[in-house]
Write a structure and sequence with these properties.
By secondary structure, the protein is mostly helical. It has 6 helices and 2 strands. The protein has 2 domains: about 80 residues, no CATH class; about 70 residues, Orthogonal Bundle (Arc Repressor Mutant, subunit A). Strands 1-2 form a two-stranded antiparallel ribbon. Helix 2 packs across helix 3 and helix 5 packs across helix 6. About 15% of the residues are buried.
């Protein structure tokens, strides 16, 4: 049942995207150029099919126009990110160390873990503490007794 709802939502989003670019595809936009049309349409936030308000950029509309011209409605369907759930910055060795530290010292917070990872040379100091916090939270490593530091 959930897959049907997800497919329906994806289809609704594709039709929504098409509705925004249809005047360009059909050559009926009143503006001086396609770029002007895209700027005008994205001046204010737009209500998406799920009811959320979102402000698109002119570049996004231009991309949708190109995608539609390339492959039709199918290309306007949303796609899952290929890197969803993974991290680009934290190496496998770094991730193993995070798990080891949380197992051995469950009350250690992300700031302390980040400092340890930098000290041990497992991550560069430019990697934010927030990256470590996010990894700990997403992977269920947060200690329930933590005082909201993560």
């Amino acid at each position: 049942m959930e897959k049907i709802n997800s497919k329906t939502q994806d289809r609704e989003l594709a039709y929504f995207r098409f509705a925004l670019i249809a005047p360009v595809i059909q050559g009926t936009f009143p503006d001086a150029s396609i770029a002007a049309y895209c700027r005008r349409v994205t001046e204010k936030p737009i209500v998406r099919p799920d009811g959320t308000l979102f402000q698109y950029t002119p570049g996004t509309l231009s991309k949708w126009i190109s995608l539609y011209k390339f492959g039709g409605m199918e290309e306007l369907m949303p796609r899952a990110r290929s890197d969803k759930g993974s991290t680009k910055i934290l190496s496998d060795e770094c991730i193993s160390e995070i798990h080891r530290l949380k197992e051995k010292y469950p009350r250690l917070n992300a700031v302390q873990i980040h400092a340890h990872l930098v000290k041990e040379g497992l991550i560069n100091a430019t990697v934010s503490e927030r990256t470590v916090q996010r990894y700990i939270k997403v992977h269920g490593l947060k200690n329930p007794a933590d005082s909201g530091l993560l």
